[in-house]
Amino acid sequence: MSKPVQQLDRVVIRFAGDSGDGMQLTGDRFTSDSAFHGNDLATLPNFPAEIRAPQGTLPGVSSFQLHFADHDVLTPGDEPDVLVAMNPAALKANLRDVPRGATIIVDTDEFSRRNLGKVGYAVSPLEDGTLESFHVHALPLTSMTVDALANYDLSRKDKERAKNMFALGLLSWLYTRPLEATEGFLRSKFATKPEILAANITALHAGVHYGETTEDFAHTYKIAPAVMAPGRYRNVTGNTALAYGLVAGAHQANLALLLGSYPITPASDILHVLSGLKRFGVTTVQAEDEIAGVGIALGASFGGALGVTTTSGPGLALKAETIGLAVSLELPLVVVDVQRGGPSTGLPTKTEQADLLQALFGRNGESPVPVIAPQSPVDCFDAAIEAVRIATAYRTPVILLSDGYLANGSEPWRLPHVDDLPDLTVDFATEPNGTDPDGKPVFHPYLRDPETLARAWAIPGTPGLEHRIGGIEKADVTGVISYDPDNHQRMTDLRDAKVKGIAATIPPIEVDDPTGDARVLVLGWGSTYGPIYAASRVVRRHGMSVARAHLRHLNPFPSNLGEVLRSYDRVIVPEMNLGQLAMLLRAAYLVDITSYTAVRGLPFTAGELADVITEAVLASNPARHSAATEAQK
Amino acid sequence: MKLDRPDLTSSSSASMPSAHGAASAHGGHGALSGAALVPSLQPGISLNRKDFTSDQEVRWCPGCGDYAILATMQGFLPELGLRRENIVFVSGIGCSSRFPYYLDTYGLHSIHGRAPSIATGLVTARPDLSVWVITGDGDALSIGGNHLIHALRRNVNLTILLFNNEIYGLTKGQYSPTSRQGKVTKSSPLGSVDTPFNPVSLALGAEATFVARTMDSDRAHLSATLRAAAAHRGSALVEIYQNCPIFNDGAFEVLKDRTEAEARIFHLVDGEPVAAGDQVVVRDDMGHLRVVARDDADSDRIVIHDPSSEDTSLAFALSRLSESTLSHVPMGVFRKVNRPAYDDLVRAQVDAAVNQAGGPASDADLDALLAGRDTWIVGG
């Protein structure tokens, strides 16, 4: 018995429930099944810092938003078309994001007087008209799950816990998703608990059957696979892609990877992933603190490994002195900062881009550090390889600025071939590179490559190259302690020139301006790529021209950046901080920047950026105003 | 020409056996020595003090105890028979931390307090290195206290020399975490109110497997202690009483006078009674240690030193005999027990994973990792 099928081009679903309801898992599974089906997609997990906030309360609400489509997807979607709310708190916390006319599915079993009271509902919103502008499906998900599991020898609590699978089954039926991958996932997750496994699979199918038989849903929906570049795909989160990028970078550099890291949200998953990759020669040391984490990494680099440390904003602050030491020692080091809301502990599980200035300047003295940022979850892979390239080729610490949105968000990844990755082989010094006044061969640790200004990397165990280095200023070439005024000037200039020189090896920034006549440029960095691109499309669909460009390298900037900025009437820089890149651009290029900022712990929506861009385009060319207004009608 | 990379991932390298391989080669007969995986000099080749002396002018104050320690170290290192290029000194900040500059080995003068963590990364990445940490009482016990205790509890294969002069020297004379209570310094004009750390007690409490105390001016004892520490696999902490002639001169003076020393220094010798001159250490009815005249001591109660005891309580009780008056000062090895070194265990896990997978990862292995388990194909 099948119902009519309606074709859609895109859907945004938000699963919301209590932290203990398994919403992240449900979202992950729906994502995998959608990816497997061939849709393009983007996800936005959003969860509290508390592991289990009091049950049924607003602070305990956890959600997972998924945008899937038959075309390329740039953001997790501004507004959900469907909200699945497993309790009153989830409804209340998410309702304001849901546009009128959207579908809301609620678990009525959880709408008890007590649960309503916990979030301040005097009357159930299911009954007082609050939801009258929505398509509401009020379903007893919990009791239907328990009923479906009547024959299982499990406690009521265990049966209730399978309600997320019932919901997943229902949604999978509604959007014609395949279930095989989820069944496989459950089989491996509950391999040692056959009763729980069987209950979950039964609940999943009960959800499907309910959809098929109920009259509540008139038809199902189909979202055709997206047209994507041919290749082999998987779905991947930013943190996993970043960890794999580090492994691939070390592999291409022929170096052992050693991670020193202290657990911190939202970076810990990189530690988790890498600690499981020993087979790839990866060593992980869970350090006693953030400072030790970077110290361990730097010690490993001194020994000829690729030293890596991973952290978030507060940890980057603690690592500052050691990063300064790495600047002085001129040794490779990769520092990953998965940014979160700050200052201080801030918003541990929410995203922000407010560590940019800390990354550039958060150390004593003149201590230049290259800084790069990935633009999407998948791009974390390539950005990590680029960080390894710069760190090893230039013997410098590199800061890689990811953020919480990229870290936990996921999207389909067209798998690269390792054959196609750049060769990053580094040569250690093996021979003396100079002579002393008596003509005897000696090793000068601070003799530089004339092109890159990188010094020789001579690792312990190499005979004849014994040398001492440290954080005290060193004499140019010989590396011995020097307090000479002119030498300090020279060494400071050399370190600066070395980092500036990296610009020669990074591609010029590319501008996306399909019509070629745009007067407004939107420039972003990091995870704002998706929302900016999506917003530009919206603006262009309305007949306006806007140019768009995205920075990967924040230090040094691409060498053509000034020229690009100066060729537009207006440059808009949206950032999830209070205007840090805008400040850098004004200082570096003396250009005016329209800074658009927000620090709400969430990525920009395409809609809000489209409004900002539209306003700027209209202001920059009043003549277009009427045309645009016409187009919008 | 390209150097043969130290094989950091696999036990297949002939020149650098992994901890894994070497441990099994020893067939479990006792523990590895501290430098078991470090390449030795070829037979017939030996080095001398001059080989370990760098061309840098030594810049400590005249009369500093560090000179004596440096001279002893330069005299001792040839004894190890190791290749000079495989020895690394890592230090923090402070007068003592300039030590690496004066030794013609590899050296890293790092930042305040962090040497144990940097050395942990180095030795974990490189089992073929003999890694020494040079630190002081401020560096190790104040700003770097956290790293020190964690290096000790992990039992990282490091030899940590803690030069204790009970004062901040390089910042010109403030009280340190080992300064005695009441110490008048530039920052404590009315006397320090801080309770000091006893570095040996601290190390024992931090699960250290090797803890010893010695003194800058006693060359023979210092050499013997360095020898024992270098032979130990795992973290070896050596507290070295060191005189600062400028800001805390004579802090250990009573231990340098032969007669006084005889009465005050209790030499810790494995299997021997713990004694100084005509005094011995006995255990009373409550199990506490007391110092009594040898003639008055019940021979059954005299404490016989056993540094290899798994139970730390005796070593700890001995460490508590030290008082600010230095009337009873145990010197020597308090504790020396065998426990697997952290870095050996870490490498063994990596080696096992690599070996189980059939050797170092190929491009194809990496491709398989990136693909994971759930992939789909788009297009032709």
Quick recap of the structure?
By secondary structure, chain A is of the alpha/beta class. Helices cover 37% and strands 19% of the residues of chain A.
Description:
The complex is a heterodimer of chains A (633) and B (380). With 633 residues, chain A is α/β, with parallel strands linked by helices. Chain A has 4 domains: 5-223, Pyruvate-ferredoxin oxidoreductase, PFOR, domain III (Pyruvate-ferredoxin Oxidoreductase, domain 3), CATH 3.40.920.10; 234-420, Thiamin diphosphate (ThDP)-binding fold, Pyr/PP domains (Rossmann fold); 427-505, no CATH class; 520-632, 3-Layer(aba) Sandwich (Rossmann fold), CATH 3.40.50. Chain A is 37% helix and 19% strand. The mean pLDDT of chain A is 95. Chain B is an alpha/beta fold and 380 residues long. Residues 1-30 of chain B have low confidence and may be disordered. Classes of the chains: A alpha/beta (633), B alpha/beta (380). Chains A and B meet through α1, β9, α9, α11 and α12 of A and β1, β2, α3, α5 and α10 of B. β19 of chain A pairs parallel with β2 (106-109) of chain B, so a sheet runs across the interface.
